[in-house]
Amino acid sequence: MADATYQTKVYDKLGGDQMVVAAGGSINVETGGKVLANGTQAAAITDVATAGSATAAANATAINSILAALRGAGIIASA
Q1: What are the residues whose beta carbons fall under 8 Å from the beta carbon of 18, sequence distance 6 or more?
Q2: DSSP structure string for 21-76
Q3: Are residues 12 and 36 in the same domain?
Q4: Domain co-membership, 38 together with 50
Q5: How many C-beta atoms surround the C-beta of residue 67 within 10 A?
Q6: What's the average model confidence in pLDDT over 5-11?
Q7: Among the four 29, 46, 56, 58, which has the fewest Cβ within 10 Å?
Q8: How many structural domains is the chain composed of?
Q9: Range of 65's domain?
Q10: Are 35 and 25 contained in the same domain?
């Protein structure tokens, strides 16, 4: 739950040790932006091969969509 003493939807908690995104707030990573942990972006993850049964292909497609979303948000590096 957001701290009622703040009016903004994205703010640092008192003391600056935590960032809060309240209901209705968001973090926008612009093109070329990255999400880093200790100054390092998560390593690239190779797409899953879609060969095999229809179920395996459907699973690979779903996993690859997730990977594309993570890359698009700058959370993992592009392959």
Answers
A1: 12
A2: E-TT------TT----BTTBPBPP-PPPP--SSHHHHHHHHHHHHHHHHHHHTTSB
A3: no
A4: yes
A5: 19
A6: 78
A7: 46
A8: 2
A9: 31-79
A10: no
Please indicate whether residue 6 or residue 48 has the higher confidence score (pLDDT).
Answer: 48
Q: How far apart are the C-alpha atoms of 62 and 5, rounded to whole Å?
A: 41
Sign of CA dihedral 64, 70, 71, 76: negative
pLDDT in tens, 41-64: 888 888 998 888 999 999 999 999
In this structure, what are the phi and psi dihedrals at residue 40, rounded to the nearest 5 degrees? -125, 135
CA atoms within 13 A on the CB side of 78: 6
What is d(CA 16, CA 11) in angstroms, rounded to the nearest whole number? 9
66 & 76 share domain: yes
| Structure-token pair, residue 46 | 């190779």
The token pair at 24 is 């209705």
